Amino acid sequence: MRLSTLGRHVSAGPCSRTGRTSFVYFSLDPALTMITLVPVPDLMVSFLRRTPHMHDEEYATSRFGNDPTSPLVLPDTMHRHRVLYTVSEYTPLLDSSNMSMQQWIQLAEDIKRSVGRKWKTTGPREGVYGD
Sorted alphabetically, which Gene3D superfamilies does this protein's record hold (predicted)? Predict the structure, then answer.
């Protein structure tokens, strides 16, 4: 592994043919979304959108417009590769240490549905958001 200019490890080979990788992050740790020990919906996404090394706002706006539900985009790497990601939250917020079997099943089904999902963009080569 080599260290990229952004200070994180990158693999030596290309990640995809398209130059972009997509993933969906499911947060099951309410401590990551708390202010004074009270879970706050959308706190993580709000923080990530304001953090330049976790979201390239200029690129996201050029590809997806000003849609607040558009995916987050990691900054470009030296290999010209983009990673698009979303953060999904449940209402109420889930705590993995206190989930029922039905909630685990729902999580698995949601992950299955998210595989292969694409996002609507303003660019001509992009896919359409949907299941």
Answer: L-asparaginase, N-terminal domain (3.40.50.1170)
